[in-house]
Amino acid sequence: MLGGSGSLNHMVYARGFPSDYHEWASIAGETWNWTNVLKYFMKTEHMTDTNIVNNPELMVYHGRGGAIEVSGTNEVMFSIKKFLQAFEELGFKTVPDMTYPNSIGAGCFSHTIRNGERDSSLRALLNNANSTSLHILKDTFVTKIIIENGTAIGIEAVKDDKTFLFYADREVILSAGTFNTPKLLMLSGVGRSEHLRSLGIDVVADLPVGSNLHDHAMVLAFLVADNGTCVSDEAENSMEAIKYLYDRTGFLAKADNMAAYLPLSSSEPTVPEFALYPTCIPQFSPFRSGCLTLGLNEDLCTELHNLNQEYELVTIAAVLLKPKSRGKVELNSINPFDDPLIYAGTFSEEQDLDHFPRLIKMAWSIADTNYFRSKNARVIKPWVEACSNLTESAWIKCMSRAMVTSAWHSVGTAAMGTVVDGDLKVLGINGLRVVDASVMPKIIRGNTNAPVVMIAEIAADLIKEHYSVSRTGTNLNNMTIGNLTASSMPNISQPNINLADVIENNDMINSSLIEVEITNVEIITTTDRQSDIDDTVNVA
């Protein structure tokens, strides 16, 4: 769909933390340090969450007037209030802003919601684009990047069972995502030479494409409790639906996802390494289908479904935010319509498991807090045959390995520093950039949607800077176009300029961006590219 994952995600607005971007800067340059990326987060943001807007200390880190609304609410659901109280009992500080870089704790996220509807990059940016240069082909499947003599010159695509070639005046920009970006690169001869040769693909550039795949590792802990926490009154639900359909108000117009961030140690109290995300599931919910979709054991899903006929379920997602384990993406075949092979690599580094006993026990301890104890909450430990007869900590590690699932935040398969440079250009290939989550060299501590928008904003400025394009036109200071040199602006005095030479030597001229004054021009038409001359002269 248009808009990528931002058109189907849970709309959580998270950025990661300064230490994430210090890592990026050490790998790819200071463009990616915290101070710089913060400006781009703020550029697209229109913060309306009153928990933040009314706090000057927090608003230092937020923007107003950007394209994407970031909203929040003081009215949280009853279950969220009880979860926040439980985390307070467990020693967590309640924080009003989950993106605040100077303090972490438990709190509700802000969300990309405007007037009760999703405010994705599609709706806030693409749908509002006002450009005669932007053309979108829907239902069109890109099969290959055309690379000649080390330069990307276009793409091959299929639409309505017909193959088309589209050529680029300047660059090809690849934004196919963490799985399909490496797939397209490899199909085009950019990747690990051993893998490409095994499929008979000519190697254009030997780069570790598809390597470095990683994701937040997520393990679910389960509680059951007496009914009354997840408010699910049929009449109330119907009224909320009526409110939403009538004027986009009520609880269905909001989201109040929450989490609790945990540091690795007291020496870095503002750097989260783990997170707990609680959810309350009302009695008689269609839980089993979702459980199976996660890939969990069928017996466990059936057990939880049966318990849900009598009790409410509480799931707590225990998430490792900075995994060391790495997987890979490889080609399944040379057929572009075959899905790539995805090897998650989760827990391939044993140390990623080391902290899960502490994390799962913390999740279980919610059952021992005052409110949930009053609801007779108890832990449900899934039966995993391979994990029997183990000590509790060893059992938790074994269970975690058996039940771990994706958090849908996969990154890193065309990483800065190994596949692309700090300007997001593919190493060794001219005219080819990557702009999506695959360029993240290391995953950030949080949801990845807002950081991808930030990457796109930086990429736009990098591209404009590369071609000396500013928002108000082209900066031609000290820039050479063919044999036309602009050493000073706004006056250019260069005799005997052959405009044909300028054009013949510069296929990359975009005349609509040239804002200079040229006087006393003698037009010598020594080329058959008359239309290009006319365009350039008209602008001049």
UniProtKB/TrEMBL annotation:
GO molecular function: flavin adenine dinucleotide binding; oxidoreductase activity, acting on CH-OH group of donors
The keyword Flavoprotein is assigned to this record: yes
Keywords: FAD, Flavoprotein
Every Glucose-methanol-choline oxidoreductase N-terminal domain range: 177-191
Entry cofactors: FAD
Transmembrane segments: none
This protein's record includes keyword NAD: no
Binding residue positions for FAD: 9-12, 142, 408-409
InterPro entries: FAD/NAD-bd_sf, GMC_OxRdtase, GMC_OxRdtase_N, GMC_OxRtase_C
Family as reported in the entry's similarity comment: Belongs to the GMC oxidoreductase family.
Protein name as catalogued: Glucose-methanol-choline oxidoreductase N-terminal domain-containing protein
